[in-house]
């Protein structure tokens, strides 16, 4: 039977692909798509005192949210702080990633493990670590006081959240940057140098453009993680820093207003969508 | 102290050395390159030829010694101030720029006005016949085209020295022949001083005015292609540049005696002792009928047809001598087992102290 072997073969391969993709598709459908659809549904329901949900269709949550300056500020604040944290993370991670990219052998392996090792402890533990370091009688504030400078308040405000999140996001940023550094060939840098480019101009005209895919990927990843971060702002903000994720928690767990929490969650999803769009726009331009 | 230099000297290496810890990769290298000449660094991998080139470019730092260009010491000059045009083995084009901007890069770094840079880049691309591809990205070009862009990019800045690091080794054989001719023509047109690193003797001999044969970080011989081929300074050079037969023998008062007991004559003078005798396969005549300085009897053991050449393995007193003859039509070829008389001249009999590699 060698009459038409090509078609059944391709068909079989297609079947196999479907079969292999089925488990993850199922898990995604049950664990992600359905809950998100559910959230979207809640955002059009009405909340009752005491945590109840009235199954009616209403625009109340959306209208209330978009007309309340508190929430508008909350969204803008979250996006703005997350962008600032992402940028800071990028600036402190870039040299490390570049160094790692250029290192070789067991030294590189050792350093890479060092960079990833913070991920082995949970963000909760690391956040408490930062609280111990940044608290009013902690080593940092004591050192500043010992120098005779006015003691800053680094805990339970945005400064602490900023410092903690930046460090927590650094491993992700470094890994993403390194993944995107593939096009950076040391010979190309050398070519730029022999053609008369100073190290600074080589960086601006060759290294930076060639590492943009990594920068875009790292920024997307860290921005998304920053906007959705909850533990660090909750613990280090001491209830005085209001961000989207903490507000969703408060609405869902403290106030028991699930429809409002759902609406805020969908809003976060929209912000993610915008970030993803910006990312793919950057990649398209690079191509 | 610098020794007397040729009046037209352009590049000079003085006691250049490279050490990694206790390992002397390059012990001490002296070299003088004239203005407008093309010099090849030829040697096996690991001989230090690429390291030396990179030291000239400033990409590697020498542990000692100095580099002079046009009488000026540039040893401590940063890479970007050296004014060298370098062509890399992997071409190293900027993947995010189109061909024209790749070529303009060096001009931009020299703050040449944009319009002039564009014009000169276009001329340089015209020179390598790639004017029509100015707006392509490097990845859209073939290997040979990328190579020519790299060449245009290095030449457009009118560098003081053109450095080429194995520029042809990533091209296929036919393209390599074409590029060899083209690079040489461009170099001669522009009268630029060039240093060419290669492990391929054909490239070195055919393209360059002089050849530096290197091994283990030192210069074995520095001479014209003819000198290097006809009068190799060492057995290594004779072996590395061109094919050669190698026989063991001894130099005595009576002359040279091979291990098999034949007496040979050589034009080379050496003190008595054990020697290696080297003869190029194509300098041996297979069926010697007339007078010859050296004549030995042998039996044909293998015949290999290579196309333009026929290679005969002739066993002479237990040793195998390879003889090459140009293929000739209508000539009845020898068969294995035939007896032959090999003949060659004393000038083609190169002798070196035994044990030299």
Secondary structure category of chain B: alpha+beta
The percentage of residues in β strands of chain B lies in 25-35%
What structural class do you assign from the helix and strand content of chain A? mainly alpha
Radius of gyration of chain B: 24 Å
Rough shape of chain A? globular
Number of structural domains of chain B? 2
Quick one: CATH superfamily of chain A?
MetI-like
Order of helices and strands of chain A: HEEHHHHHHHHHHH
Subcellular location (chain A): Cell membrane
Protein name (chain A): Putative spermidine/putrescine transport system permease protein
Transmembrane segments (chain A): 16-37, 79-100, 112-134, 154-177, 206-231, 264-283
Membrane topology (chain A): Multi-pass membrane protein
Q: What features would you describe in this structure?
A:
- Chain A: It is a multi-pass membrane protein.
- Chain A: Belongs to the binding-protein-dependent transport system permease family. CysTW subfamily.
- Chain A: This is Putative spermidine/putrescine transport system permease protein.
- Chain A: Residues 75-279 form the ABC transmembrane type-1 domain.
- Chain A: It is found in: Cell membrane.
- The complex is a heterodimer of chains A (287) and B (357).
- Chain A is globular.
- Chain A has helices at residues 6-42, 60-67, 69-102, 105-116, 123-134, 139-146, 158-179, 186-194, 199-228, 231-237, 244-254, 258-286; strands at residues 46-47, 53-54.
- Chain A is mainly α and 287 residues long.
- Chain B is an alpha+beta fold and 357 residues long.
- Chain B has two domains: 9-237, P-loop containing nucleotide triphosphate hydrolases (Rossmann fold, 3-Layer(aba) Sandwich); 243-353, OB fold (Dihydrolipoamide Acetyltransferase, E2P) (Beta Barrel), CATH 2.40.50.140.
- Helix content of chain B is 24%, strand content 34%.
- Chain B has eight helices and 19 strands.
- Chain B has helices at residues 49-57, 99-109, 114-127, 143-155, 173-190, 201-207, 225-230, 235-240; strands at 9-20, 23-34, 38-42, 64-69, 72-73, 84-87, 161-165, 193-198, 210-215, 218-223, 245-252, 255-258, 263-264, 273-279, 294-305, 309-316, 319-326, 339-344, 350-353.
- In chain B, the strands form four sheets. A six-stranded mixed sheet of chain B has the order 6-7-8-3-9-10, sandwiched between helices. Chain B has a five-stranded antiparallel sheet with strand order 13-12-11-14-19, with no helix packed on it. In chain B, strands 2-1-4-5 form a four-stranded antiparallel sheet, with no helix packed on it.
- In chain B, strand 12 and strand 13 form a beta hairpin.
- In chain B, 38% of the residues are buried.
- The mean pLDDT of chain B is 89.
- Chains A and B meet through helix 8 and helix 9 of A and strand 6 and helix 2 of B.
